[in-house]
Amino acid sequence: MVTDKLVVLTTCETEDQARYMARHLVEHRLAACVNILPCAQSVYRWKDAIEESPEFVLIIKSRRDVFPRLRDAIAHLHTYEVPEVIALPVIEGSDAYLQWIDRETAS
To answer: Where residue 10 sits, what CATH number does that domain have?
Structure first.
């Protein structure tokens, strides 16, 4: 059974930015929870050069119907020209946790 829940990934350049974004998303009920993982090392191509930089990974728990507003909020808050916003479907999960996501992302 595929649920309507999503795990959304993004990255931030600084811990302050990651905390600010996480708090904003939860306060505005766009996310039930945001985990901030420090010490990611990203290697990527940007403007014809290979770049390497440390980043903070945000793991965002939300719902499919909230995603357009979540994506727009990340784009608005982010300092990157092209921020990562990738949504992964939650196939299954514990009923209690999935219900909690519903309650915390309610309008």
So the answer is: 3.30.70.120
Burial (Cβ within 10 Å: 0-12, 13-18, ≥19) of residue 60: buried
Domain that holds residue 61: 5-104
pLDDT digits (tens, 9 = 90+) for 34-50: 999 998 999 999 999 99
The tens digit of pLDDT for each residue in 40-92 reads 999 999 999 999 999 999 999 999 999 999 999 999 999 999 999 999 999 99
Tally of domains within the chain: 1
